[in-house]
Queue: 2 jobs
Job 1
Amino acid sequence: MLKRISQFFQRDKSSKSASGPLVFGDGQHCLSPDMINRDAFKVVDVLQKAGFEAYVVGGCVRDLLIGLKPKDFDVATSAKPWEVKELFRRSRIIGRRFQIVHVQFSREIIEVTTFRSNSSQSTSKNRRQQTDSGMLTRDNVFGTVEEDASRRDLTVNALYYDPSTNSIHDFTNGIDDVDAKIIRIIGDPETRFREDPVRLLRVARFAAKLGFNIEPATANPMKHRAADLQQVSPPRLFDETLKLFMSGQGLDTFKILVEHRLFDYIVPQLGPMLNDRQGIPMKLVSQALINTDKRIRASQRVTPAFIYAALLWPAVQRLASNFEKNGNSSPYALSKAAGEIILNQIPVTAIPKRFSIPMREIWDLQLHLRRRGGNRAQRLVEHPRFRAAYDFVLLREQAGENLDGLGAWWTTYQDANPESRQTMADDVMATDRSPKKRRRRRNSPKPKADPAQ
Ligand code: ATP
Ligand code: MG
């Protein structure tokens, strides 16, 4: 596939005009109008027939070129938001400062963005305010298609496809970079990262997703701009982390984040614990992401609660063990540590309650799953968070924690019939009560008391 693309691209390079974009016409690339989602095609068609410029743009063009299935199809046009709205009955303008139009179709919504300019005059404005609000203020300055291309983040994300002529318009040599598998920031990398630090994460995300290399001029400033991530609003950073870890290439993305010191600003409480590359924290997070990637490939459900539970667990465990050393019971220490660690994380990535509550349940259950004698095991299996907590036990064991075969015990228990389950639970109860076991326990971590809450 890439070979074919490559041949097409080279053929066209010779036809580069002195100014304006490279245009890859019909037969000079591997795209065809039937690859474009019907509704996006319709939007482009209506806009063009009304006399506006319109293209399918961004990630979908990039993905189609390299043979991936696009997540969505975005349209960029010279029509102003209100002009777009007039053309489509079922449409509405979204956002105040960054206005886009959502055109509703029976199956989906097509997002239509007016060409914007990234006018450099505004870079002299108060930088902090600028960084806090990302590029929103500037992005409502409308512009030409060329200006629109240069305000985008990556060359491979700035390709404009016109289905009516089956041509790709390339203002930033994005086609060359697709061909050479290169992630390159458009414009001066340092400036573009400073304008919007989320672009640091986007570089990491797309390098991992596409399997591309980050070219040196883009990669060089990443480490020392990483701290700018602290200026990104916590809700936006939370959303970005979901894209980083839940898009199917979580492990590769994580490696790039660590390499460029970006991860320290996403989960600061874990960052220093990853310095030991062979340590359990590194293994736990890597394994959590390997498992998540596998689940996504198998179209299984993944939840941010589980991922964040894994990302923060090493910090929770360490703090809980400090509290225990100070004489607190295990459940109390764990609960107090969990509360503190979450509280510290919220100002970085604002984890919504609907995720932080299940996270705490998964952590709490790590203690409960050990106390499984008598009727407890049966009750625990019925707990709504049991499955996640059990998966979390397996994850901890995969990462090298020694839990005395707890995962295997629960695996067997779940597969067993009611009688066998009872026998297993009775055996645990008997072992817990045996004096030998008690004696042995005195040298190992404190016995777990009943949960305080
Ligand atoms: P995908 O949807 O597959 O994750 P995408 O490239 O479509 O990838 P989106 O987040 O949907 O990414 O953004 C659409 C387009 O908007 C991008 O391709 C890029 O051109 C532009 N864009 C998005 N975020 C930024 C940003 N922070 N700075 C500059 N341009 C951006
Ligand atoms: Mg997209």
Note: Residues 58-59, 71-72, 74 surround magnesium ion (ligand 2) (CB under 6 Å).
Job 2
Amino acid sequence: MSETMSEAKAAFSLPKLPYEENALEPLVSARTLSFHYGKHHAGYVAALNRLVEGSAYQELELAEVVRRTAQDPTAKAVFNNAAQAWNHQFYWQSMAPRGGGEPDDKLRRAIERDFGTVKALRAAFAKAALGQFGSGWTWLVADPNGKLGLLATANADTPIARGETPLVAIDLWEHAYYLDYQNRRADYVTAWVDRLINWRFAERNFG
Ligand code: MN
């Protein structure tokens, strides 16, 4: 009996979604979340575990794997799957049921300093997201001095590989919205910046 307990544990696990699969309806459907989380995110974690088996990477934190492989052309597959595993974990928390609304005073003051108003930030965020060509992400980030900015990254690329602190991120791969919005990326982006964005998560990341 006890021998079955010694089976090797996968290095990286799929974290639980922070809400039920239907919690973001009608803006993001349970069907989208079921595929996006249960197939895409789970697939990146499974691929990463296969790739790192028997290597030193399996002893590291996920974010550390991302940082160490970002500039290494021989570790491209590990980077892509580690970064996508990290990015998705971050994306689920970047959305909230009954999201939207306003950030707290500390973050709002920083937004007003760097973007003018919260409304102007939402517009700039949407514009950056819509300007993303092909698959990728758009991030609200803080640099090491706390200055806020927007960053669009292609494919699996992620601000944690560049020394910037992400506050929230929107997934712009078609798998994030196609079942619900088809080619209407603008409708997904608008719903996201106005009604899904999790300001509580952004505030915690801003520190
Ligand atoms: Mn995705």
Note: Strands lie at 136-142, 148-154, 165-171.
